[in-house]
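Troubleshooting entry. Yesterday's outputs looked truncated, so today I'm pasting the complete records for two proteins to confirm everything comes through intact. If either block looks cut off, that's the bug. Protein one:
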Amino acid sequence: MVTMRNPFKRQDSVDATAAPELHHTASAEDVKSPVDEKDGFVDSNVGDTHEVHGHNPWEDAGEENRLANGKERPIETAEDIATRCISLEDDPQMPVHTFRMYFLGLGLTCFAAVLGQIFYFRPQTVYVSQLFLQVIAFILGRAWSAVLPNASRGKVWAFLNPCEFTLKEHVAILIMSSTATSSAEAISVFAADELYYNITPNYGVAIFTLLGSQLLGYGLAGLMRAFCVFPTYIVYPNLIPTVNLFDALHRDKDVGAQKKRLRLFWIVFVCIMCWEFVPEFIAPTLTGISIFCLAKRDSAWVTRIFGGSNGNEGLGMFSLCLDWNYVGSGGGSLGALFTPLTTQVSQYIGVALCIMIFCGMYATNAWNSAQFPFLSQQLFFANGSFPAGSIYDQTLILTPDFQLNKTALDIFGLPQYAGSNAIYYLGCNLAIGATLTHVGLWYWRPILNAIRQFKTRQIDDPHYQKMLVYKEVPMYVYGGIILVSFAMAMATCYTGNSQLPWWALIVAIILAAFMFPFVCVIYAITGFKTDVQQLAQMLGAAVVPGNSQANMYFTLYGYNSCAQGLSLARDLKMGQYCKLPPIANVIVQIIGTIIGALLQLIIMKQVISNQREILLDTQGSNVWSGQQVQSFNSQAVSWGALAKYFYGPGSTYQIIPYCILIGLAVPVPFWIGHKFFPKLRLNTFVSPITCWCLGYLSVGINSSVFTTMLLALFSQFYLRRYCATWFRKYNYLVSAALDGGTQFFVFIATFALFGAAGSAQEMPNWALNPTGNYDYCMRCTSSSSGHEHCDLGVPRP
């Protein structure tokens, strides 16, 4: 019998409740490994001492999980997710380190790294998603085991194809390849250096900078895994669909209930993949159907409030979106079907406040908002030699080596944000402060308890108990990773002309180490990632003022280390859910990171060498674009060179840095209120999410927000509470199918239709593909003179 806490009921987080002792069903994949048990890093000292039982998600609920009326009890706590939505089955002898795993893992890592880096320099924002890699890896692995002769044909075939494609091979392949899906942060630094600063680090410096910046966060996460990975309250909600899919693909494949689940997955996967062709290409109006826009097509305010089918069009209030590419998670950490209802309620409270604040600021001209576009991420002239509202040219106030020219700044004046963009930065800083207090108030007891239990390996999580059969990665290994990474970072900071002094590097690492546990805990419980990039840029500007080059490197180690730590912690939890040995988990994670980073560096060098002029051009071409490097460099310049004038005392935006301190106080009233009025359930309110969502609608296509909210209520409230059996068996699997099928289509369409192969296909205009905004709202654009121009006849760019 294993005891577990109920962390989602935060007021009872230190109380232990007995987990149900359920029947164990043997896995259909209990195959004998062709290699000895050391392949799985089995610890023979503990291998037979930790029996934990639980229900499989495809089985009917036991009597202990039924209400008095015979219906299944709803999934309510993290304990329920751990014991009823995720299988506890394991076979310690299942092979992991096979030739097939490494061949497919390295192949998909190279594929993801090369493609992800190429798309970093493309005008289309596309990435290779984890669900896409999960499906591809399964197809390739099953084909491998089916086509090649099996182990009975001799030693060579036993080495190449030892058994059926196993769950643990599949998990290891996914972890290895998914580490390389997005461009490393250091690549942005190198690209900006080569394009704007005429600094070309040699391969040695670049490689060690990459490895130091990528692996430092892994060491931090490893040292803190006692409370960031192991406990039951550490859920990582966006992992549940992925793990459900692993269970459906590999466990008890001959059981009728499991066949039904798998059949539903493939039906939904194929249907959504075919459907996406309609809103993405044939009928884009389905991306945002707005009754208000159709009823009042000549109002700019209707566009601002109810429009949202096009980028930076409007706030999308009450729009109906039929495109899962926007309604779904998009591969991110938040999704309507898997994110907890408490998270989503807190999110939509913030969205409602966001709508009111944006409209109020624009209507009252606060921060000169009415002089600039309603939604925009650009910097604008507010006064000086150019009309107010025209786009700010940062090069006018910088010296040739990209330092601030104070004389030019006096002539051209300070830039300003669009009001909505300023609120976005304000909300981000509020969220940073609120995250610190929220985690400290609500989770300090379970965190402290988890650390104490870790010392004796008695953490009361059923999956952790099953993992005790495997040898754990020693703490000194993670400590060694930090020391080696720090040594590489320190050496390359001076040999690579980073202009970041040694003490500033230490401050950046301390920032990452301090922020990581707070950011990781709230991400693991709610699915929300607190963005600390702005904090790193702000602190970097204070530590090394007036130096954009140093600001980039400070951000690299202060922000990227935290982000990489989240990646390792999440993958360690995936390994715990799927019973992948911890040593194997860390090995494939590091291999994928190193191989991916090296390939990304090579691709970056080649692209810049051959496409330099196009990457420097603001417009770019239909094949190549430097927009992401330009944005990265612009942020470094604005923080590194202008922070003192932009955010200092007496400036327009002086409140933005102070919002970190203000955010510290935001969770306190709800914590106190819960102490006195527990029936109000103020403990379920996640204030950092609400703070961050104050600027949630400041960018992009917003027509999906209302539809996503309705789906969240349907899934996480109605189905979860009143259709508990269907929710447990199918909800997360359907989420994986919808996201996976959509991402599969988007990947293919990017090459076939949207110009990634060099030539874009155009859909003729018709009723559901109009020349203006897709939702028929009035189109508002900003002219070169700075005035907003709204017209029904303005075509899309």
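Protein two, checking that the full record survives here as well:
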Amino acid sequence: MYDEHHRQEPSHGIDVTVKRRLELSSMKAEEENVIDDLTPRDASWAVRNEPAFHPGLLAMNPISVTVSSMRTKSWKLLRSCREQAVRVALLALFTLLLVGVLINFGSGRLVSRGSGSLEQSIFKVVLDAGSTGTRIHVFKFRRRDGDITLERTADPEMTFFRKVDGGLSAYKENPEEAREGLLKEASIGVPEAVGCQALLLATAGLRLIPPQAAEELLQVSRRVIRESPFTLVRDEDVAVLDGSEEGLYMWRSVDFIYGAHSSALTSKPSAVVDLGGGSVQLAYRTLKGSQVSPSDRNKFTDYLRPTYPIGAAASSTSSEKRMKDYFLASAASIQPQSMADGPLYVHSWLGYGLEAARQRVLQENTNGTSPCLIPSDDLPQYYDYAGRCLATVRAALDLHQDCGATQASECAFNGAWRGPIDPSSYTFRVFSYVFDVARSNGLVPTGAHEVVITVAQFRDVARVRCAETVGGGSLPWACLDAVYVTSLLSDGFGIPDTQPTVVAERLSYDKGGLLYAAWPLGAALERLDFVVAFRFLAMIRRPAASRGVHRSSPIGVIKAPGSNKNTPPRGAGGQKAAGGGGGLALPLQKKFGQHLLKNPGILDKIIEASDIKSTDTVLEIGPGTGNLTMRLLELAKKVVALEIDPRMAAEVKKRAQTSGRMNLKVIEGDALKTAFPVFDVCVANLPYQISSPFTFKLLAHRPVFRCGVIMFQKEFGERLVARVGEENYGRLAINCQLFSKVTRVCNVSKGSFNPPPEVDSMIVKFVLHKDPINVDFPEFDGLLRIAFTRKNKTLHSSFMNKAVIKVLEENYKTYCSLHSQPVQYQGPAFKAHVENTLRGSGLAESRAMKIDIDQYLALLLEFHRNGIHFVNVSDPSTTTDRAATDAFSMEVDSA
């Protein structure tokens, strides 16, 4: 968490050339004066005081420049030099801030390794609050030249690991009891990891207790982490993990290990089964040849997720979160196995974990006895004991319940769809309680952490255990557990009796390094989203100087479409409400595009839409003389106001001090060049020519904030809120709605301002999706650029353009070369390949403005499956091919 005690005021350097010019101009001076105020006031920089930061990133040495009294001409030169120095310093500061923010978000240390390569160490702490215990994992990742590897934090273990008995749900009567144990375990770790991001995710145990008790436990856990040496980036990092998310993260963990390093049975894709205490999950990637009928595809959308298995996003049944399961293609080199062709199948059965299943099986018999409990010595014995228990377990699994699939063989148990899986085509990797059952029954050699066995061996163990008595040395649950595991794997998941199956407790990595086979590694991989922030920020486009756009100020001169007059509503930040209300008659400056709002009703709309809480920090862009600022100060814990005009900045500070408001911080600077602090709500009033880059900078800000309420030119706002099929629906709407929910608050007429501009305005609200969206944004935007070249034409027409085919073919050849793959398609054959891919998606005859976001994401995945990319993959920083841009004459997002 950012804190005032951890903030520093950086000093600013001045260019040597500038210094020399000042010295030359003072040669004829008779007396010397010291100018010691070359930096803008209140340019504070919030940083974390933690060892992850390199000291060189935190400050620049101040330089005092000695000058003499000058004639008017000399002072003009001095003023010009000072302004240039400030601009240079602010640009350098913004660059350093950006690097610092990205490093901090990953809790990483950036180190130069020569030859231009950089290494970054990233630590993540994951607390797994399960149904039977709380486990702490500390992961250390190393990123170098685009590759991510896992580093050791213990020996022989790959990760630091601790466990305390009793899950969070055990504290449901008194949540405060969870505090001491969590603090103790979270503080025992790797010293280098202090200050890194920590998250606590609870599984089945917390899903089974009342919601109010669960939320109390989560609130306690959030407070515990905030008071620990680690960082809670957002409240959502302490949450109840959905069963499907648990399965998805487990699959990612396994795929990361087995995809990058050879091990047993790696020639086949992995199907992961994780048997916990309260639930069991199945996850696998469907193969390209798997056939799912159209009716089944529509019926079982909750089971299938079109993803790349790198990066991450929480899985969900909602389309909003399904779209987030597109991972960063830039990191795909980590896992070769991950490039299989089908979508990911994930499902979780709550109540079918081993401990929950024991109760479920016992409930099948209402006479007080069960054939699955090992009898005592004085009870009669049955030769057929294992068979009778197996029948009871099968009844508890409800194997005969119809799941609604076209093929009955695709039904698993309890009415759930198993998917189009041919078990013989996969290596099943089974974890958690299955390993415990195997080890307790002698199927795992002493000291081994992984073994390859068969279902037939479990079946043999079940026959032996169910024929024993308690007096024979077996535990009462031994028969039931062995039979349940056998039936679950065989009847539930369809694994043949003789098929080799990998059963493991730990995974081997990096020459024998071990780590526990569990989902937290996948959850930690998801939080490597500093990559997303960096690539997304790289997409901020600056309007060309040839278009006459002034970029030195976030309140620069704005020109209305088709007009040469300055027409920027300055927005609610610099308003002067009707009747004065404390606003001073400061002369408005045309270069800042200042128009004061005279309609107080608009202030009410902004306040209402912002939904500010007493604990919020509000970032206000363009406060002006402070009419809205004063309202915000009454509601929020803190307001950080960013203002380009020093006169306005001084006025708003004076008003706050006069009113006794001490919760205001004013920063003088450019909204596009100044790093934003951590905040909960953003209120902004923009010059309209920076609407597009500001919007994407705001959406890229991390940690994720709650909402933004921004005033735009009405035309631009209508393009933001447009829905599929509407006239204004295009790239801008899709890209913004990919990352946030965008809604119209109200329209603002030009008569609401003084002086009135020539265009109307609109207030738009952004509510960011809670989970980071990891999509290869340049690729996605490249697809949209082609699709919206002619938005009223079909995709087939747009993609069959000669210039498009030429660029895509060049990218395809580059991709094949980089991945040592033969070039299968050239010339007419490649054009046919693109056409077949497009028709295979079912969208060839659809028009760009009629296709929704989910469909575009699915289309991108289909193109990637076939080796077709929209960015020059030899240069990942390139967002689109320049030749293609010229050929396509694509639209510019800036208003």
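Both blocks look complete. Sanity check on protein two: The chain has a mean pLDDT of 72.
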